[in-house]
Amino acid sequence: MIDKNVVRNLVEEWLKDKEYFLVDVEISPDDKIVVEIDHADGVWIDDCVQLSKYIEDRLNRDDEDYELEVGSAGLGQPFKVPQQYVNFIGKEVEVLDADGKKYRGVLKAVDGRDFTVTVKEKVKKEGAKRPTMEDVDRTFSMDGVKYAKYLISFK
């Protein structure tokens, strides 16, 4: 089986001095390698092709046959690395917390492994007859949520 660290190191070499970042490397038992990269402005197919060739030139198919797929982290897929959170500051996201509660709001800030989402919630103020919808900041830990992902809008 192909060593995941070898592939990860090859990707990191190619990424050096580029604005891309590595999202994930997966290798299945039948040696299908899937590499996901991302960029603040999106991923260009030409760059995926270049990275694919770079990896293929450095892995020996005579030692072990493999299938290689290089692409971008899927839009609307859960975030896997902190840089993805940073790239979507100011955008609408969905968060599923550890208790199974969903939150939808605007990703406001990222601080280390914590992130803040501004959500609309009913808040009953003292003396008011009815609750009103207000913006409330909720802070989550990247490690403490089931997922966070960008919400695609076609408005």
User: Structural class from helices and strands?
Assistant: alpha+beta
Radius of gyration: 20 Å
What is the chain-wise order of helices and strands? HEEHEHEEEEE
Q: Give the uncertain stretches in residue-range form.
A: none
Question: How many DSSP-defined strands?
Answer: 8
* Helical residues, percent: 10-25%
What is the makeup of the main sheet? 5 strands, antiparallel
Q: How many individual helices?
A: 3
Which percent band covers the strand fraction?
35-45%
Strand order of the largest sheet: 7-6-5-4-8
Please report the distance between the alpha carbons of the first and last residues.
Answer: 46 Å
Large-scale geometry? elongated
Report the average pLDDT across residues: 92
Provide a quick synopsis of the model:
This protein has 155 residues and is α+β, with helices and mostly antiparallel strands.
